[in-house]
Amino acid sequence: MQSLREYLNAAPDLLYQALDLATAGFYVCPISDPSGAGQDLDACREDADASGRLTDVFFSKRTFASLGHPIPADDLWQSWVGLIHPDDLQRVVDEIKHAMNQTSATVLIEYRLLRDDGSYRFTRESGKMVRPDQLGRTCYLGVLSDIDRQVEFERQLIRQNHDTQTILDTIPTCIWVKDEQSRIERVNRAAAEGTGLPPEQIVGKLTRDVYPSEAKRFEETDATIMQGDMVRAVPEKLVHRDGSFRNMLIDKYKLQCDADSQARILVVGSDVTELVSTQRAMAKSEALFRTMFDSSPIGMLLVDNDGTIRLANDRCQTMFGYQDGELINHAIEQLVPLSARGAHRRHRDSFSSVPQGRRRGDIRHLPAVRKDGSKFVVDVWLTNVSVDNQVMTLASVSDVTEQANTETRLKLAVEVGNVGFWETDPNTGRVELSPQAMRQMGITEPITDVQGFLDRLHPDDREATLKAFDDHVRGDLPIYEAVFRLLHVDGDYRWVISRGICIRDDDGVAQPAVGFHIDITEQQEMKLELERSNQDLDRFAYIASHDLKAPLRGIRNIVGWLQEDLDDRADPDIDDHMRLLTTQADRMNRLLDDLLQYARIGRESVAVQDVDLAKTVNELFEFISPPQHIRLEIPDDLPTFQTARAPLEQVIRNLFTNAVQHAGSQNDRIAFDCQRDGEFYCFRVRDWGKGVPAEYHEKVFQLFQSITPRDRQSGTGLGLALVRRLVEQAGGRAWVESPQDGGAAFGFTWPVKYRV
Question: How would you classify the pairing of strands 680-687 and 640-644?
């Protein structure tokens, strides 16, 4: 080594050539003394100052040439810095500064350098502080290596690993890859989810750490596969962290490639949980089928494709008047009257002609015949079933003779009741109307398609009617319902309410829809008249309120003027009369307000919003300005819920006002209570005043009724009537109780979920 160093010292050009051949270039940054090594790198290109710091930076030819750039004539360092990628520059500067400040430190940094074609090359720089004997000063030596292809290979490897993992994660089969020590190197999403652990908690762990209870069996089959034996379709259970498990069939494969001396184990697990459950269910179903068949309260028959009865339960044999076993191996047509056997045979052949899959059907009000020749009516439900690899028909039979007679009577009643039935197929547009539905429009020729119906539908009602029907067909509405006008042959439109429902097949596809029409022209006209009456009532209430309040305001003004004119000359009796007149005018004004509010209940929309009951109750009690000696008692757990604030506040305020009026001077408290009772809150306002006798419990809620004499009452007699009507409008009820310890308790219920 010493001789090589001496040789290179004697021939320094040889060293430079060797470095250029082995690297992508190098550079040397001389520094006069270590104490000045911490200077800004820009100083490396400045002239030496009086302190004797470095005077130049040396770059080998290959540093610039390997990038396709000519060697700059001057200002080498600044030119070199300009080739460093802007995102890497500060990091490179910081690393080299650190090395200059720590003379023993080495630098190993990777960054990008600009090529002459505008692209960047990944470069690794190895650098350290050196002190050559010939120079007598400290230098920073940076040796550059081209790692562009290495970086690209690493990126490709990362992409390949990511693509491989992505593919594995999309496979529903559970996959593990292990090494020879049963350490899990890779796992896909299905396997991780089956275990209940995230993949990062599985990869790198031994099998015994992830699957402690199954580890022994798993590791034994791992050893088997590494010895070259086959491991195929081994039943196992993959236990989840929550205690559930999946039934699995495990296959294992030995992975070996020339590029890796170590073998790997590929574990593939197929989830057969549903298959196992299905097999068990099928076994149970077969046992249950026979039990249910024999014990069913409905008559049941099993018929083969030739129409031969293979099984008949006791209920069916009794229904048709046969003894045990008499129906077996007889033709099903012997249970049908002679006149209907041809049609029944054709229907049976049509139903059983599709052997694949399961089909269902029904025959309503089929004529049947007993062994003794008597006839009756049955309903039959049919299902294709597979028995011993043969498709047979399972028929459920019910005696509906009485029901058929009832339906006949019902049909007559429907015709008398002016109910018209309709049927339409949304797939073909076919329409069928009952005779009564046709009479509702006064037509004699049947309407056979949707367009014929639309031609008689009022233009203003078409869009809403079609939308309601389409929404039901799509499944957005459980029942089709619409109110519209149909053109009668006399030229007038009749109001009709229509309801119906779609029949759907096994796949949920809409089949024919059936429903009815009821002529509601008379009711609709009454409704319109009622709406006009309500509008007239609203106008009357407004006019009455305005016109009646105007004289009251005049009375109050006149009283005020008289009091001003009389001043101190008025007689005390006159003052009392004036005060009484003012009080009565105010009472009349409140009475008008209460009457208007009572009349408008139920005809005005209310807003539903959050109500903090504790805060609201206190505010309402303060609002009525109670006497100072009366306090309010409320529980600490009053709820907050969404409801109509305005009517609820009106009810509570009226009850508070009533309680204060009847509390008396000797009673100092009023209690408010709330209890949840199913879908309602039960509220009570309690006072300890004179109370309400039992015979007045209903009377106090009537209009203008009060147990206080009129000449001594300050209210209008409408407060409790408003309470009851507001509560009943919300769907609750109001009442009064007479507690044993005196006073009165007014209670009411209010829905937890208010329906507008």
Answer: unpaired
Do the bridges between strand 669-677 and strand 631-633 make them parallel or antiparallel, or are there none, so unpaired? Answer: parallel
- Residue 273 gets which letter from DSSP? H
Quote the crossing angle between the two packed helices 521-566 and 572-600, to the nearest 10°.
160
- The SS3 assignment for 55 reads coil
Tens digit of pLDDT for each residue in 419-476? 788 888 888 888 888 888 888 888 888 888 888 888 899 999 999 999 999 898 888 8
Give the list of residues 6+ apart from residue 58 with CB closer than 8 angstroms, or none. Answer: 27, 28, 29, 30
- What gap in Å lies between CA 633 and CA 582, rounded to an integer? 35
**Residue tagged 């059983």 (tokens):** 352
Q: What is the model's pTM?
A: 0.34
* Cα distance between the two ends of the chain: 98
φ and ψ of 128, to 5 deg: -160, 170
- How crowded is residue 133: how many other Cβ atoms within 10 Å of its Cβ? 6
242: left (phi over 0), alpha (psi -120 to 50) or beta: alpha
Question: Per residue in 722-732, pLDDT tens?
Answer: 888 888 888 89
Ramachandran assignment for 414, one of left (phi > 0), alpha (psi -120 to 50 degrees), beta (any other): alpha
Length of the chain: 756
Helix (H) or strand (E) holding 623: helix 613-623
Q: Token match 């796949």: residue?
A: 507
Tens-digit pLDDT profile for residues 305-334: 888 998 888 888 989 999 888 889 999 889
Mean pLDDT score of the chain: 79
| Tokens 């494709």, residue located | 305
Looking at residue 546, what is its pLDDT? 62
Residue 183 vs residues 219, 237, 253: alpha-carbon distances, Å: 10, 19, 15
DSSP 8-class letter at 152: H
The Cα 720–Cα 728 span in angstroms is 12
In this structure, what is the dihedral angle of CA atoms 290, 295, 297, 300, given to the nearest 10 degrees? 30
β partners of residue 483: 497
Nearest to 598 by CA among 510, 537, 663, 523: 537
pLDDT exceeds 60 at position 527: yes
Which residue has tokens 């040789």? 7
DSSP designation for 442 = T
